[in-house]
Amino acid sequence: MLCCMPGVAFVPALLVSWSSAAFIISYMIAVLAGHVEPLVPYISDTGTKPPESGIFGFMINISALLGVITMYIRYLLIEKQNESSHFVRSSCNMFSLCIGLMGCIGMGIVATFQELSVPSVHDIGALVAFGSGVVYITLQSIISYKSCPQWNTYFVCHIRMAISVISCIAFIPMIVFASQISMTKIDWTPGEK
């Protein structure tokens, strides 16, 4: 089985490295081109104008693909472990995979439809990506606890759950503040609210 082959651990590491590079490279180009202010710009703002928009879109789509591969490997790993331990229903594992894949589709939508070009589609993609991501990591945390102590340590489970809680807490203000914004605009002038 693919998940039991040595060497697949590079895929999640590649996902994190590639995604980080996507954000950093598009940020650097956007700042150097004068398209965004250097102090904490909105992620989508750093991928709105050419040339950084093409790089951002391409790299985030690759990240979405790597996310799909990573989640599928995790799914296969849990299925294989579950054959001997029966710690979680297979339908729960499949549901978690489907939620994760929805998040990857949301990432692809965000990458393809720039913030200023088609804002409503971009925002829906971001909502799907972040919302599904929060649900996915929470489900994976629960699955991890169910597999203890045979397949995970409690320390790993606690770390995963902490990340889940932080993600849930961060998701709430994202929704609140995004709903308060009526216009998508990068360049603001003094006097505008």
UniProtKB/TrEMBL annotation:
Belongs to the DRAM/TMEM150 family. The gene is Dram1. GO terms for biological process: regulation of autophagy. It holds the Pfam family Frag1. Residues 8-183 form the CWH43-like N-terminal domain. InterPro entries: CWH43_N, DRAM/TMEM150_Autophagy_Mod. Keywords: Membrane, Transmembrane, Transmembrane helix. The chain crosses the membrane at residues 7-33, 53-73, 94-112, 124-143, 155-178. This is DNA damage-regulated autophagy modulator protein 1. GO terms for cellular component: endomembrane system; lysosome. It is a multi-pass membrane protein. It is found in: Endomembrane system. Its main location: membrane. It comes from the Eukaryota.
